[in-house]
Design goal:
mainly alpha; three-stranded antiparallel β-sheet; two-stranded antiparallel sheet
Length: 271
């Protein structure tokens, strides 16, 4: 019954929370996070037999700063005789030799190597350079903060459409969000073709409007910045207010898209 009351908004709990200062609320969140992570530590200790392996598997960062593994077979797998954890302590693999990966002079022979050594999401690397008008690479264009319309269009990069990137709506159901973006892109291309245009590019003022929308709906804490290096904070780089997802809700995100598609010439330039 208590759980039901809390979901409906327990008056006493609500009053207590409202009476707290911002610093007290943050401290309460931090303590709750520590308690939760310590429960994960205890679970690791209970399941993983080898103490050194268990220590390496314990998270030492805020919950959800890295994606937690909820699979029931993940931790027990480290008790199998043919499963070994090599903790590089953040250094990474030294090289890939003929027999297998090498770390600190030790070669680990294997028959099959699966490349799952980490990734950079929402960033473009040297292997994927994107140049716009005037030869400006997109990372240079984003030097002072990401600038898009819906996370899809960037001024100066005509006929270029981004899907699933930053400044788009945050959705656990990524497929649904991508479908919505795909529909929007198709409508933009359709409009350009039907009106005899070969080029479509978002206008700077439309881009600026969306940047401010993203900033207005961002969280008010430094959680991303405080996380260990990961895709929340550009692998540990400075995380600006606009460098994130649009958190105004998916319905509002979709309604903004529909509204702009009703006035496409106002927001896009054509050639």
């Amino acid at each position: 019954m208590k759980a039901m009351r809390l979901r409906e908004g327990d008056p006493e709990e609500k009053a207590e929370l409202e009476a707290l200062t911002r610093e007290e609320k943050i401290r309460r969140q931090e303590n709750a996070n520590i308690d939760f992570v310590m429960r994960i530590h205890k679970r690791v200790e209970e399941i993983v037999h080898d103490k050194a392996t268990a220590e390496s598997l314990k998270p030492w960062y805020m919950f959800m700063c890295k994606r937690p593994c909820f699979d029931d077979e993940y931790l027990p797998a480290f008790n199998l005789p043919n499963v070994h954890l090599v903790d590089t302590r953040g250094k990474g693999i030294t090289e890939i030799g003929e027999q297998g990966p090498v770390f600190e002079g030790n070669t680990y022979p294997l028959d099959l190597l699966i490349y799952a050594t980490g990734f950079e999401v929402q960033k473009t690397g040297i292997y994927n350079r994107i140049y716009g008008v005037g030869g400006k690479e997109i990372n240079e264009a984003y030097g002072n903060g990401i600038r898009t319309l819906f996370g899809v269009h960037t001024h100066g990069y005509p006929n270029f459409f981004i899907m699933g990137g930053y400044q788009a709506s945050f959705q656990f159901n990524l497929t649904f969000m991508l479908q919505t973006q795909g529909d929007h892109i198709a409508e933009c291309i359709k409009y350009a073709r039907e009106h005899g245009h070969a080029v479509i590019d978002v206008k700077p003022d439309a881009e600026e409007w969306w940047v401010q929308e993203v900033i207005a709906h961002r969280g008010k804490t430094t959680r991303n910045q405080d996380c260990t290096p990961g895709y929340y904070n550009f692998e540990g780089e400075f995380n600006r207010r606009q460098d994130g997802n649009y958190n105004g809700g998916f319905r509002q995100y979709h309604e903004h898209m529909l509204a702009i598609r009703g006035e496409i010439p106002k927001y896009f330039a054509f050639a």
